[in-house]
Specification:
Length: 64
């Protein structure tokens, strides 16, 4: 969560030319405007039933 708020979201906001405060500060300022880029959090703690989730690891640099 720290990485999303203080690296990924500001970097993507800059990349997408969003009008958010993190574009200027490079860290989250919990904005509420229409250009806010981080709006949904998904946390998976466990696969239920067993085997429903597959994790694929890719040994390449694919972005942020
Ligand atoms: S909430 Fe707003 S200021 Fe914070 S990272 Fe997301 S877009 Fe940037």
């Amino acid at each position: 969560m720290y990485r999303v708020k203080n690296y990924v979201a500001p970097t993507n906001s800059i990349r997408l030319d969003k009008k958010t405060p993190c574009v200027k500060t490079s860290y989250c300022e919990e904005c509420k405007g229409p250009d806010r880029i981080c709006n949904t959090w998904t946390i998976t703690e466990k696969s239920f039933p067993k085997g429903r989730i597959k994790v694929i690891l890719i040994n390449e640099d694919l972005g942020l």
